[in-house]
Every structure is written in structure tokens, then in C-alpha cells.
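Box 4.2: Ligand-aware structure prediction
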Amino acid sequence: MKTIVAATKNKHKIVEIEAITSQFGMNIIPRDEAGVPDVEIPETGKTFEENSYIKAYEIMKLSGQITIADDSGLVVDCIDGAPGVYSARFATFPGIWPDENDEGEEDSDDRDNNSKLLRLIKDFPYEERTARFVSVITMVFPDGKTIAARGTVEGHLVLEERGGGGFGYDPIFIPLGYDKTFGELPAELKNSISHRANALKMLKEKLENITID
Ligand code: ITT
């Protein structure tokens, strides 16, 4: 397999994607190392699949190389699936579950996103605080051929942040079958059961069934 460009600008995702794919012998390089200029790709899609394709296709055009993108997020059942595709922008995206503490900044950081989510779910009992992480990985080849794979991991949310590992919503997410959050569990464990791991494993299976020039 040739070198594959990762379309993401999120350093945590890069580390996880490299750790997971190194086990299948894929050689991933971040977009900046592939000479891709520091442009923002607008995520205008309404689904993880649409946004994942937009990012992979645009970065493939700029790099001229096989590219993968990850579009991911947390889907929380008791608040109608929010933040979903708006996970990275939850605390500041206009009109998405607005709350009086929103500051109206362009980018939201993990702490603001987590505190907004915790305010919204605080009155729900544990058994109703079910959620899943979703990752859609799309691989686009220079000839336009596209392969996409969706991975999920189910779990529950806790009402205070626990652990300093991972990123994003990890400190409040307990994967099903465990009693610790992704922020507390070792990175190797997260990388063996996560939504991203499941999507990348499925992508690998799909790649084994197609012919690549
Ligand atoms: P790129 O678009 O450059 O890849 P991004 O962080 O903006 O980076 P997304 O639009 O896919 O990526 O948003 C993903 C958000 O979902 C991320 O910022 C976290 O808030 C959340 N998320 C995704 N995977 C996660 C994980 O493994 N652990 C915790 N939070 C996660």
C-alpha cells in the first residue's frame, strides 16, 4: 500500500489513526507533511458521511495522493442525537441547542463543549444517558474511487469529567462493558474498541476486497 494522506488537522485524531493503522501496515502522513496548504475545508454536510467525503476529496485534490478523512462525533440519545456532526463546534455553533452560557466564539474548545453537554444532560438518570461515538472514515483515490466505512462504540455519559487521557468528550464517556471513561482507560484500550478503530478495521476489510493499481 502506498503512503496515505490523513486529511485531519486534529492532532489527537492523527495519533490515534497512526496507532491503529500501523497494525495493518498502512503508512499515514498528516496533510501538512504532504505539502497541503493550511486551508479550512468547510464542513457543510448534514451527515458524518457527507463531511467525511468532503474532507477526503478536497485534500486528495490538493495532495494528489490517496487520502483518508475521519468525520466523527458523539450522538447523545436524551438530547435528540446532539451534538452529532456539530460535536467539534457544539458550544458555539449558532442555533445548536443554544444555552445562556454560550459565548458566541467561532471555535469551541473541548472544555466548553463538555460543560455545555453536561448542563444539558444533568437531569437525566444514568440509564437514559446513553450515547455513541461515530466515526466515518472515507478513502478517496486520485482517480476518484471512494471507499467509506462507519464505526461506532456504545456507552453512557457521566456527569463529571474523569481522567486526563484522550481528547474531546472522552472524559465523560464510559464505553459499554467498562467502568472507566475513555479519559481514564489506556490509549491502547481505546484504540482497540473505539469508533475510529472499528471504522478503520472495516475500511481495511473493504480494501482487501478491491484491486488497487
Ligand atoms: P478535522 O475535521 O480536521 O478532522 P475536527 O476535530 O474538526 O478535525 P470533526 O469535525 O470530525 O473533526 O469533529 C470531531 C469532534 O467530535 C471532535 O472535535 C470531538 O469533539 C468529537 N470526537 C470525535 N472523536 C472523538 C474521540 O475519539 N474522543 C472524544 N471526542 C471525539
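In the box above, the bound molecule is inosine 5'-triphosphate. Helices lie at 11-22, 48-63, 110-121, 187-193, 195-208.
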